Amino acid sequence: MEFLHDLTIKKFHEGLKKKKFSALEITKEFFDYINDKDKEIEAYLSLNKDFAFKQAEAADLAIAKEEDISELTGVPLAIKDNILIKGLPSTAASKMLENYTASYDATIITKLENEKAVFLGKTNMDEFAMGSSTENSAFKKTKNPYDLERVPGGSSGGSAAAVASSMAIAALGSDTGGSIRQPASFCGVVGLKPTYGAVSRFGLIAMASSLDQIGPIAKTVEDAAILFKSIAGKDKLDSTSVDAKYGDELLNPKLENIKKLKVGLPKEYFIEGLDDYAKKEIEKAIDKIKSLGIEIKEISLPHTKYALSVYYIIMTAEVSANLARFDGIRYSRLKNLEPRNLLDIYLKQKGEGFGPEPRRRAILGTYVLSSGYYDAYYSKAQKVRRLIRNDFDDAFKEVDIILTPVSPTPAFKIGEKTADPLKMYLSDIFTIPLNLAGLPGISIPVRKYEKNKELPVGFQLIGKPFQEADILGLGQFYDRIT
Ligand code: GLN
Q1: Does the beta carbon of 155 sit less than 6 angstroms from any atom of ligand 1?
Q2: Which atom of ligand 1 is found nearest the CA of 175?
Q3: pTM of the prediction?
Q4: Which domains are present in the chain?
Q5: Catalytic residue check, 241
Q6: Catalytic option among 174, 179, 185, 443
């Protein structure tokens, strides 16, 4: 088992090429380990053994035939349950989709299948990706591998916990307001939210379409870069995707170029309310970055204080539109509904299918879009969203990267915030502005942490649009000195 803990995409690839092991052997080991470990962590909602073995055999065959394999060939991955894999359940952790089986592959799944990656299973999440602790799942509560009494973060909590406990080499998550970065920070792993448009979302169960992005969760920044590179790119099935060019520097950054980057610390992000321990950890990260010879200066993002309010208007408005399609006719129907007529199907399916959080958000979203309130809320929020984006544009005239905390606290206790949604919402204050502005952001663990003893803290690097190479580059050099 020790061996599995050590595996990164990079090491796996080298071992596979040197024929130290086969993809099938490793896949079997992962399932044996998951069988045992996941009783405690509860990161997976479903496992895909038969399918995964076939994928692993295909990877081994490619190696036997001495085909040119990719770095992801045979790599066992965990996939968040809102990303569709044809023939497998995709519930988005909602009772609404409990009986749904995907009828097509997400574009990124097709891409990864072409590289012969292996999908171990689908991971737990907050229902429809709404939440920050994975406690909003309709099915189970995932535990934080560093402290089983604490949450793994959310909404991609299952993916982050799976990687942190070595139940997958890497994973995919989705991020609408922090759902990749915050669980990565809580679980001591790396999480990248790409620029809006960098990765196709075709086949992602939508939460808020102007904010959603899919991205990697991995053990190292280098692994995150490898996964990102293979899922990025324009897709004709997602009209918001963009043909951005990512060159060689994504995987092979040069220190002389990285040293030229200027890093900004926004004063609005280092405020009261930031937990002492988290603050001290972030300061360590800043010192280490300075030790690379990088210039750091204070900057200002003056509209930060509006970000949370703006997000909870725009996001809920889009949620109310996206959830409308779950009507008990399309996708799947709950068992034992016994509807009397069509209207009865709608009422019963929505009444029983949605948990409290999606319901709360759909109601709020319908309200902010209603004719009497549209101007007061929705349209005003759009204007302030522009101001938030302008703040970043201005800051990026002075610096190349912005460094901030990911979350005001390390992982909190299970149950600590469930009674008070507002308290839960506040924990996303540092991650949400990037989604509003469409910018790329990465969460990187400040250092290595010891399980059952310390709580991990991540710091966030924010890049210019489509400049993932900057934050992944600096991150890769940071990893080398930790
Ligand atoms: N935690 C945030 C929310 O509840 C973000 C969720 C996400 O990124 N999917 O909306």
Answers
A1: yes
A2: 8
A3: 0.97
A4: 2-259+401-480 (3.90.1300.10)
A5: no
A6: 179
Tokens standing for residue 78: 């965990």
Is 179 tagged catalytic?
yes
Tokens of 24: 């099938």
Strand order in the sheet with 118-123: 44-47, 118-123, 76-80, 170-175, 213-218, 190-193, 441-445, 458-463, 401-405, 262-266, 295-299
Exposed / middle / buried, residue 110 (Cβ in 10 Å: 0-12, 13-18, 19+): middle
465 near 438, Cβ under 8 Å? yes
Residue with tokens 């310390």: 454
CB of 428 closer than 6 angstroms to any ligand 1 atom: yes
| 3-state SS, residue 80 | strand
Q: What is the pLDDT along the chain (482 residues), one digit of tens a residue?
A: 567 888 999 999 999 999 999 999 999 999 999 999 999 999 999 999 999 999 999 999 999 998 889 999 999 999 999 999 999 999 999 999 999 999 999 999 999 999 999 999 999 999 999 999 999 999 999 999 999 999 999 999 999 999 999 999 999 999 999 999 999 999 999 999 999 999 999 999 999 999 999 999 999 999 999 999 999 999 999 999 999 989 889 999 999 999 999 999 999 999 878 899 999 999 999 999 999 999 999 999 999 999 999 999 999 999 999 999 999 999 988 988 888 999 999 999 999 999 999 999 999 999 999 988 999 999 999 999 999 999 999 999 999 999 999 999 999 999 999 888 887 888 899 999 999 999 999 999 999 999 999 999 999 999 999 999 999 999 999 999 88
CB-based contacts of 214, cutoff 8 Å, min separation 6:
83, 106, 108, 172, 173, 174, 175, 194, 199, 200, 201, 204, 231
Whether 357 is in the pocket of ligand 1, judged by its Cβ within 6 Å, is no
CB 177 less than 6 A from any atom of ligand 1: yes
